[in-house]
Amino acid sequence: MPELPEVEVVRAGMQRHFAGARITDIDIRALRSVRRHLDGPQGFSAALADQRVVSFERRGKFIWALLDDPNTALVVHLGMSGQVLAQRSLQNLPVHARVILSLKPAPHMVFSDQRMFGGMHVDALIESAGRLVPQSMAHIAADPFEPVFDVVAVAARMRRSNSAVKSVLLNQQVVSGIGNIYADEALWRAKLDWARPASNVSLAKLQELLDAAKQVMGEALAAGGTSFDSMYVNVNGSGGYFSRSLNAYGREGEPCPRCGGAIIREKFENRSAFRCTRCQRRQTAPL
DNA sequence: AAGATCGCCTGCAGGC
DNA sequence: TGCCTGCAGGCGATCT
User: Strand B: which bases are under 7 Å from protein Cβ?
Assistant: First the structure.
């Protein structure tokens, strides 16, 4: 499941393969993959035809390409299963190829997405959280790697919520880029039970949690940035290059690498949460 | 009005 | 063998 580090690897690959090239053809194979484009598929194609992709930007899990037209951008979101491939030939397309942009002089940009939670659309640019971003993602907060990210302010904002601290950490309107895997890893590093109300966690501990999230994503990025083929802009959530260093996520029934306690899996908002029952102990109700 | 829940979507693993 | 259920989870929409 692509979270910030995986998305950044894709962005960097796109920058390397496609930046500066001109879009010569647009092939939409799945209407669902362009559903976020408000003008419909024809409008999507019209907005991109003959445009040059100038550079590739990212905030959190969103990628966008700046175009010749300074007022619009091509937004790419990978969702759960999205990949972007650079292919010289249109033969041997992946089974789930959904949108293909042909570029000159560059490989074809193939957007592949098994589950179609992701997609592409063209959008107007507006100012938000210190940057020019596509309008449709103006509500997305800065991610921990942006210069504008203010860890003290974000921790303070988290503390104002009564929701489970994991829920707030996953809220892309508070801090972006963190998904289920890195949330559990950050909580493990900070020795926090995911279910604790954020309002019940100290400001210092919330800062520690945000620092841990940045650290674990930074390490994944360092490991992933060197490990993919030059022609294949890869995203692989489950079996990929970053799963080997996980301490809590997916380790149900294993001993905690830090204290030897038991890692358990619990239900959380219709998904999973992993924690150590010893060093991420659940507090008994106060008073 | 913040916070919780739902629906989207496909492939695969496991149980019977 | 084949059917069924659950699971994976990002994110916007829709409820309370």
Answer: 2-11
**Tokens in use for A211?**
């620092």
| Model pLDDT for residues A234-252, shown as the tens digit of each residue | 543 333 446 567 899 989 9
Taking only the tens place, the pLDDT of each residue in A10-63 is 999 899 999 999 999 999 999 999 999 989 999 999 999 999 999 999 999 999
Tell me the C-alpha distance between A93 and A143, whole Å.
Answer: 33
Q: Which residues of chain A have pLDDT under 70?
A: 225-244, 285-287
Note the pTM of the prediction, 2 decimals. 0.93
Residues A283, A263: Cα–Cα separation, whole Å: 16
Q: Is the CB of A167 under 7 A from strand B?
A: yes
Q: Which residues 26 to 45 of A reach strand B, CB within 7 A? A: 32
Å separating the CA of residue A183 from the C1' of nucleotide C5:
28
Set A11, A58, A59, A61: catalytic member: A61
CB-based contact A277:A193 (threshold 8 Å) = no
- Can you tell me the distance from the alpha carbon of A241 to that of A156, in angstroms, rounded to the nearest whole number? 33
Phi-psi region of A130 (alpha: psi -120 to 50; beta: other; left: phi over 0): left
Distance A204 CA to C9 C1' (A): 29
* Beta-bridge partner residues of A228: none
Q: What is the pLDDT of residue A244?
A: 60
Residue among A122, A114, A97, A101 at smallest CA distance from A29: A97
CA distance A178 to A7: 11
Q: What is the pLDDT of residue A286?
A: 54
A24 strand B contact, CB < 7 Å: no
Per-residue flag: A162 CB under 7 A of strand B: yes
Residue A179 approaches strand C within 7 Å at CB? yes
